[in-house]
Design brief:
The chain is mainly alpha-helical. It has a domain of 298 residues. Helices cover 59% and strands 4% of the residues. The chain contains 22 helices and 4 strands. It has a 4-stranded antiparallel beta sheet. A hairpin with a 2-residue loop joins strand 3 and strand 4. Helix 5 crosses helix 8 and helix 11 packs across helix 19. The N terminus is likely disordered. It comes from Mycena indigotica.
Length: 498
């Protein structure tokens, strides 16, 4: 049997990859940079280009090759448009303050979702539901209407199409936005991925249960209701005392080492937060301030979908104002309190109230501090604090690289779109819910001492109450659309008229 030559063995690694063959067929050098930031890792650029090449080969190349076999410039033109979009999105992400979105807007919307669902559930068998004739999704839709979502959970395609078209118009130069074919192809691909693949999947209750179970790291087997009986205690002896004494010393030393390590990490983090350079003044429009509620009980639909900014007002003289802080820690605590209904149990309320007091006490350190310059009322100096600093550390290129790799592995496992996965049966969905309700943590001490205080005497019932507002696909569609509106409105405030 002839052995392969050295030339044939060395030819493989030198062959151009898929992205270079499809997206840059006429280029002889390296692929051009995709991101505008010079600190972007090269592997991130390669992964994003590879993902774009796989998507275009799967969704565009099959029907385009039937139209013409000789035009090889269509895919490079789409790549050029996508490059403009990616760079524009990168600029907007770096130029926007994402801390209010992550720590304030998203928890408030989810909290309002829980409240509206529970209000609709309470009205299900009353005269508000026409004597029980109206289901919970219809009642929820009446409490939280959205112009693009119907009561049965269907999304208006034209609404999403207009949003995507506006994003392309904001990101593309006029000469690239004017031609219709490339822009329509990109718009319809994004629309298909969102409305046919992503949103129908992530709004399923079983999919949410699966994500929670994956994050908790729970096994596939349902935890037993009764714990195994402990062996009979051995008679007290000198050997037993020595073992207990040494075990206590080991536990104490381990606890002390953990506390020392936590203290060092806390001191190091505090130093890094305080040494974070102050952001340059941010110009802003002086407008009439909106009333701020004491608690996040505003309807999410009115605060996101139908928000209209107030008219600009001119201030002749503006004295130096005191530094302003945003309550970034409180919305998350309100969300936890609403999910687990801590106000209905005295022990849980006694735990949440000190946490709220601590969050209020440490607000100047936890939240972002904004000080208005005395000589310019339209400019702010932003002093980052702990929570915005942690967000900046979390939103790193490494996270984006991991996300792109997971998406490529999931959507294109063999280089081509994977067959649609089979949805779990009703029995499998019930098993996932049972595993979630049976979860008690990985520590017996937590199960016996912490959970009864926070979740009450029946943790399974409390957990069932916590996941019930996510058990309706139609209601989950409302939640996803409001979150999507909030994210797009943060990156593209011109959609809100700002």
């Amino acid at each position: 049997m002839p052995t392969p030559s050295i030339v044939s063995q060395s030819k493989g690694p030198n062959q151009p990859n898929l992205a270079k063959r499809l997206l840059f067929p006429n280029s002889t050098g390296d692929i051009p940079p995709l991101f505008s930031s010079p600190n972007t890792p090269p592997e991130l650029t390669a992964e994003v280009y590879d993902f774009i090449a796989l998507a275009l080969r799967a969704f565009v190349n099959p029907w385009w090759t039937k139209i013409t076999r000789y035009d090889k410039q269509f895919l490079p033109d789409i790549t050029r448009i996508l490059t403009h979009v990616v760079r524009a999105l990168e600029t907007r992400v770096h130029g926007r303050d994402l801390a209010p979105l992550v720590f304030r807007d998203v928890p408030t919307i989810v909290t309002q979702h829980y409240r509206d669902y529970r209000n609709a559930e309470a009205k299900a068998n009353s005269s508000y539901a026409s004597g029980g004739a109206l289901p919970i999704p219809v009642l929820f839709h009446n409490l939280q209407p959205h112009m693009a979502v119907s009561a049965d959970g269907s999304i208006d395609e034209e609404y999403m199409r207009q949003i995507i078209d506006h994003i392309l118009k904001s990101c593309l130069p006029p000469e690239d936005y004017a031609p219709d074919p490339e822009r329509f192809v990109i718009r319809e691909i994004v629309l298909k991925i969102l409305l046919k693949d992503v949103i129908p999947k992530i709004t399923q209750p079983w999919f949410i249960h699966k994500i929670i179970l994956d994050q908790l790291g729970q096994d596939d087997m349902v935890l037993p209701e009764s714990r195994p009986e402990s062996p009979a205690a051995s008679p007290l002896s000198f050997h037993t005392l020595i073992v207990v004494f040494l075990s206590a010393i080991q536990t104490l030393s381990g606890t002390c080492l953990a506390m020392i390590n936590a203290y060092k990490q806390a001191v190091s983090t505090i130093k890094r937060v305080n040494q974070t350079p102050t952001r340059p003044p941010i110009s802003r429009r002086v407008s009439t301030p909106l009333p701020v509620p004491l608690s996040p009980s505003i309807s999410a639909s009115s605060s996101v979908s139908s928000y209209t900014p107030s008219q600009d007002t001119t201030l002749t003289s503006n004295p130096p104002s005191a530094p302003l802080t945003n309550d970034y820690a409180l919305p998350a605590l309100y969300l936890v309190s609403e999910i687990f209904s801590t106000q209905a149990r005295m022990a849980a309320s006694s735990i949440m109230h000190p946490l709220l007091l601590l969050a209020v006490s440490f607000t100047p350190f936890l939240d972002r501090q904004v000080a208005t310059l005395p000589f310019d009322a339209s400019a702010d100096v932003v002093n980052p604090r702990l929570l915005p600093y942690l967000l900046m550390q979390a939103l790193s290129p490494k996270l984006l690289l991991t996300t792109i790799r997971n998406a490529k592995r999931t959507l294109f496992p063999n280089g081509y779109p994977a067959p649609p996965p089979i949805d779990p049966t009703l029995e499998e969905q019930a098993q996932m819910r049972a595993r979630l309700l049976a979860y008690r943590g990985k520590s017996g001490w937590v199960e016996t001492h912490i959970l009864p205080l926070f979740l009450g005497p029946d943790p399974s019932m409390t957990l069932a109450t916590a996941i019930d507002p996510l058990s309706s696909r139609e209601c989950n569609v409302h939640l996803i659309m409001l979150l999507l509106d909030c994210i797009i409105g943060t990156l593209f405030p011109e959609l809100w008229g700002q």
